[in-house]
Amino acid sequence: MFGQDGDKQVCTTNLVAKETAITRFLQDYPPAAEAGRDHHALRGCEDVRWSEFPECPAAIPVLLHGLLDEAAAPEATRVLTNSLLNSVREMNVSVPTALPFLFRLASDPQVPVRSGLLDLLVCIAGFSAPIDGRNEGVVRWFGSDSDHPEREQCRAVFAENASVVAMLAEELTRPDDRATLRQAAGLD
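RE: above sequence
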């Protein structure tokens, strides 16, 4: 799967760092793992085999539940963001699977870190934008769309949830953020 041993080592290192951050999160906020157990937005999140996605920790549901714990929510948002984004230029291939949970949580006004989730959705929408294959520098930096099918998969999830995306976009104060979110769903 990896072209070089160095690539595999980087992926392993990234996963270990993500898992370590989740372990620290659980040590600091033990009740967070049980928060919102019956919340409709998280139905099915524990049925996903998150660890089968490269560089994705198995404990993503813990972080999703942590978003519903008032005390833990800000740290859960930070750790979840770092778990879903592999670097400043690449999101994890698990993001299309995580998006429906994020949409439902961001749509609930009772979620303590709702604005942070909106920011994360804007970030994911930006990562989902197609890459201009004619621009060699951009392709070298971000990789081609054929190397990152998760971009198109995310756009499909945004489009499937276009009515929710449109509603969430209206809540954003920055016009650029609204446009980014709407474009990911094919609304503009």
